[in-house]
Amino acid sequence: MYNPKSAHNQVSSIQFHSSKSQCHAPMLLPKPVTDPIQYFKDIPWCAKILSDKSVVQVAVPDRTPLPSTESAFIRETLNTPNTVKACITFFRYIKPTAPASETGEDKKNPFLELCTFVDLNSGVNGYANTAHGGFYGVVLDEVMGTTANLQAAQGAFTASLKVDFKKPLYTPSVVLVRGKVQKKKGKRVFVNGSVEDKDGNVLASAEGLFIMVDRDIGRWTDKTKSKL
């Protein structure tokens, strides 16, 4: 039987730390969020999604920087009130529409959809009031890569990631990032992902190929976390 707690223990999604901005005039930055789950539950469209019966687990990602510097870009550079103010992750179980003989899905480890709410601010901008296009790639790779890792005993590397930009991501705003394995064949894991706004508009979609490895690649989940 599938155990959602075991899946939660493997989650390595989006995490972050703070730094100070330099500017010519004082800048009022958003305050850090102390209770991310309640923070998103207080946003009506987020609360509606979180209350859906398909949601099997909600979690707050660990945002602690690591001594090894692994994931420093996610855990430190993007962990500021002016970049990624807050985030939570949750799993959704979606009944398969294709037979396991075609997708390679194991009933004991189903292809769960991993979702992440991310509250973005101007520190991720490229153009004025608009997130940098490369930011799409970062959050999609993190979420989609996590879903691939949940299918791999030793972890998986990104082999390719194709992102289609559909609409601008305006900031500040909260977006929903999704990732779900579509097929597993041999060492290859095929994953689809998307970034959506509060109205369900798809701002970007992605297709990724991840390669499972047969050796320990030293994922941060296997290491002792730093105590700051």
From TrEMBL:
Residues 129-203 form the Thioesterase domain. Pfam families: 4HBT (PF03061). CDD domains: PaaI_thioesterase. This is Thioesterase domain-containing protein. The lineage of its organism: Eukaryota, Fungi, Dikarya, Ascomycota, Pezizomycotina.
